[in-house]
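DM from R.C. (forwarded with permission)

"hey, sorry to bug you on a friday — could you get me a structure for this? deadline for the figure draft is monday and I only need the backbone to look sensible"
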Amino acid sequence: MRDSRRPAPCNSRNPPGPLYMSDASSPATATAPDMLELAALLCSRVCHDLISPVGAIVNGLEVLDDDPKPEDREFALDLIRKSAKTASARLQFCRLAFGAAGSSGAQIDLGDAQTMAKGHIEDGKCSITWNLPRLLLPKNRVKLLLNMLVVAQHTIPRGGMLTVDPIGEGETMSFRITATGHNARLPQNISELLSGERGPAADAHAIQPYYTRLLAQACGLTVKLAPEGEAITVTAS
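My reply, with the result:
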């Protein structure tokens, strides 16, 4: 029987549970959330992503408070270090992907976006090949790119590679992300949520692809998710 004081291994990098609700709970006639509900659901999504690493930090501190054996103390300190790093990376990513990230006309450096994307997504199972040039783009395009990466990550639940390529150039550049990995698949209802054929389910997981569609519309683009051989592509064009 495991010592209740000993923190469970941190699994904060794993994507959260099922992304979308079932057909019965997410009918095609579902109405779009109003601004208050959209804000609340996005906040819930961010909180969900942070609960695991922050909870692991608390568990590690509780072990240290119990004056543990040297090996338990080192285990707790290692858990705290890794979880704090994960929480920081997730906060930075979420600030850019979901937050205001400057004024309405702000531009964001794609190099900064690359750093945040790698810090959030790369975990030993999933890696990113970034083929975009370093330049400034309107913030909504960069937010769209980061949200497309989140969508693409969920198509390779066992890990793999996300390859990011440009479509076009300059401030009108759009993106193509190719996800390759064992058992790459299309998550349930994701294509309909991205295209607008299906209304968003009232939970913090389904709101993310819906928000991705809103960002694409703000940029005058459409996001499409499709299989391509053994890979899955997410394209904004």
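R.C.: lifesaver. Helices lie at 35-65, 70-98, 110-121, 139-153, 190-195, 207-218.
me: no worries. Confidence is low (pLDDT under 50) at residues 1-29.
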